[in-house]
Structures
1.
Amino acid sequence: MVHEMPRSKKGILIAIEGIDGSGKTTQSKLLFKALKERGYNVVLSHEPTEGRFGREIREKLRRNHIAPEKAYELFVMDRKEHIENKIKPALDNGAIVIIDRYFISTIAYQGAAGVSISKILEDHKQFAPIPDLVIILDIPVEEADKRLSNKSKDLFENNMNYLRKVREIYLNMKNFLNTNIIIINALRPVEEIHKEILNHVLKIIRNN
Ligand code: TYD
């Protein structure tokens, strides 16, 4: 059940992943800035996107109105558009593409919601380039809950038991995906985590 896909020939694809509150967005931005400063051609993006399907997903999540299969369908449609319009062109152009969430989120979140992980892998094999590096920021669910308690929470952020399952799948991602997967203890200071991520990324760039 391992995801085997040809890697992109030119660019480098990096996915930053983790449960809500793990600090993905902060770390994605720091990584983007550090690579830019080093003169690399780098593109930063995120999922769900700001496109029509991404907006529909956010809206539905806010109102708690969505069955797992329907959510899955929308995430896939959003991702297909994202890959066609942005990720593939950037990779073909030789860029380092950083995405704050990718299909790894679908494996973890929709997998935890009951969608078959083998189906998710099989579907994505058809259209989604596999990342050269997956960074998973790991924090306990209790910590995520504390960090998010002042923000508005959506369906996924609400349920601690659900997030525990999501985290469990993230921690076992090497069973599903055949690529470089790094699990990072994200309880540490932001700058320390950033340095660790940057070191892993520079290693991947050197070996590319
Ligand atoms: P998130 O990146 O946290 O959005 P925001 O920046 O608005 O906080 O993503 C929103 C939620 O969507 C988050 O709880 C994770 C969930 N999600 C999935 O369930 N499956 C997916 O494939 C993706 C990309 C996100």
2.
Amino acid sequence: MSGSYSRIVGTGAYLPAKILTNKDLERMVDTSDEWIYARTGIRQRHIAADEEQTSDLALAASRTALATAGIDAADLDLVVVATTTPDMVFPSTACILQAKLGARNCPAFDMQAVCSGFVYGLATADQFIRSGQYRNALVVGAEIYSRILDWNDRATCVLFGDGAGAVVLQRSNKPGIISSHLHADGAHVDMLSVPGTVSGGKVSGRPFVQMDGQSVFKFAVKVLDEVAKEALTANHIEKSEIDWLIPHQANIRIIQATARKLGISMEKVVATVDRHANTSAASIPLALDEAVRDGRIRAGQHVLLEGVGGGFTWGAVLVRW
Ligand code: ACO
């Protein structure tokens, strides 16, 4: 075995072509660009075409991540797709993606941790690589939330968007991923959920996102602050040593409140929520890809990724780039 860490050696992103602006939403529900922007920082979101599936978004992001890493799909040892909006009940979107990529003979599974899914997936793939079992892993966050929204409910439909982000992890002598910290508390199921289920060939219950927005807001800020501090303390790293904070992109006010509590300047925070809205498991890898490609994230820097989502689930991954 050479090396007992994993490094991110390639990133990729995909956003569907169709853009839905707040102005467009004004024609659909009783809302306004001013209300949405003031409460959330969102101006627009991307919406998948009818014929696009989550695995298609994942495929486009994955191809870019693999090309950037210089790795052939056939050399992947593991495919993990974080999603709450799979193509089908089963098989997993990861299996569908694996076939589309031509990455045969490697394990593939979905990670369901809602908006924390990418952080959960990254932490899981990192463990497989650290243990020496695998060399190359693909971790994807891909979502089509537009299909689980009630487009008549202005309280939720303005918040989300579709997209995918992917990373290739590779075994290395040096970190890479320094540590990961995952949490869940199932006591908060009702705070944020899609309560509908498929049973007897019928959807029973409401198959749309429902949430208690203010409780979600407070809970998210609390746990994003706690888990970031946990990652810093575990590694004896000062907040001043964090070069980039990439939190889940739900709402700019949650992001600002988290940064303020942590004492990290907004100049060190990567924010894409204005253009992407909340893409759930895709939001962190989409933001990461943007900051890598535009040159903000550079070799040797510390990047802290942190997610929070339904479950509730939350977690952080500290990376040395
Ligand atoms: N446009 C106009 N008015 C609206 C809209 C809208 N899109 N949505 C709600 N309103 C109205 C409400 O009906 C209410 O009207 P009322 O006072 O006449 O009853 C008023 O605006 C205020 O509603 P609140 O829910 O109190 O508004 P709040 O300031 O709490 O903002 C928001 C709502 C933006 C959802 C906020 O609570 C929030 O950001 N919460 C975090 C939730 C979140 O980001 N969830 C994403 C998923 S969670 C995750 O990813 C971890």
